Amino acid sequence: MNPADLPERAQYILMMFGMDADWRDPNEERSHVSGLQHALLCGTKALRHYPEDSEMIVAALLHDVARPMSDIFHGEVIAYILKDRVRPAIFEALMIHGELQDQMLKNGGKLGPGYHRLTAEATCLAAWDYTSFDPEGDMAPITEFLPHIAKVFSD
Ligand SMILES: [Fe+2]
Ligand SMILES: [Fe+2]
Question: Is 24 a member of any domain?
Answer without folding.
Answer: no
